[in-house]
Design goal:
By secondary structure, the chain is an all-alpha fold. The protein is built from five helices and no strands.
Length: about 70
């Protein structure tokens, strides 16, 4: 699926989608679920496959920074 088609299908503004791709913005859970639905997969599948691709590319897959860890605390 082309980037424009995914943005349209998932109801994501194209300029915002570009910012997501460039790492200028972080997607919300709702946006991830809409993207997964547009791709015809579950949210968990989208996350698992993305994590696999990042790991095979040698990219870090854990949250970085103190503020990210603080958000995970109960």
């Amino acid at each position: 699926m082309a980037q424009d088609q995914l943005a349209l299908s998932a109801n994501i503004d194209r300029s915002y989608y570009g910012k997501l791709e460039r790492g200028e913005r972080q997607p919300t859970l709702g946006l991830l679920l809409r993207a997964a639905r547009a791709l015809g997969v579950s949210g968990s599948t989208l996350v698992k496959e993305t994590e696999k691709r990042l790991e095979s590319a040698g990219a870090p897959t854990q949250l970085a920074g103190r503020s990210a860890r603080a958000k995970l605390r109960p």
